[in-house]
């Protein structure tokens, strides 16, 4: 499925499960920010079963590129701000201030790996990720109740959230990693070039670490995140419980994504 104006949109249906078969299509979608949807793209989005859109971006990101959603039918927008992932270090910058070149240079000079960034998300984001699981658990067949989760690129905050939900319902780890890693190919081309040109224009060197952080999806990054969840919580289902997900919610999530 393609929607004009998205570069990293996809349905998570069809992900193989450890018990056999695969996740249900038409329930959980993921994407980059829907800020550049064309009229055709809006019409195409309205034709999907998506009824809930979850935005992980910060207030500054949302102001810079607001969501564009169909006006032809109701779509519920849920904002679950996850600071880690906007850009490492930006969580310490005032929400009302755009960082200058010197601030950005300091931030990029102290870059974590993507794996470290994802662990930071997990440490602070259990409540937000559990809320996404709860929203997906509310899926009702034959109603526009599917959930679309997005951040800016649809690779980091979105990637961690989707990996957690898929892992919690028994998706195969290799398939979760493959879905995560595919974002880099989707973003390659004009989107990546535009991001890198913007970084270079600020005087920030495009080192391999900067390139990976802003446009990459190396498998070892999401593997690191899932390994941390295993070590600290005994798995993704238990991690989501630590964020407030109930057993009834978890069962609803399984029904929605597995059937």
UniProtKB/TrEMBL annotation:
<keyword id="KW-0378">Hydrolase</keyword>
<dbReference type="Pfam" id="PF13350">
    <property type="entry name" value="Y_phosphatase3"/>
</dbReference>
<dbReference type="InterPro" id="IPR016130">
    <property type="entry name" value="Tyr_Pase_AS"/>
</dbReference>
<dbReference type="GO" id="GO:0004725">
    <property type="term" value="F:protein tyrosine phosphatase activity"/>
</dbReference>
<dbReference type="InterPro" id="IPR000387">
    <property type="entry name" value="Tyr_Pase_dom"/>
</dbReference>
<dbReference type="InterPro" id="IPR026893">
    <property type="entry name" value="Tyr/Ser_Pase_IphP-type"/>
</dbReference>
<feature type="domain" description="Tyrosine specific protein phosphatases">
    <location>
        <begin position="127"/>
        <end position="166"/>
    </location>
</feature>
<dbReference type="InterPro" id="IPR029021">
    <property type="entry name" value="Prot-tyrosine_phosphatase-like"/>
</dbReference>
<protein>
    <submittedName>
        <fullName>Protein-tyrosine phosphatase</fullName>
        <ecNumber>3.1.3.48</ecNumber>
    </submittedName>
</protein>
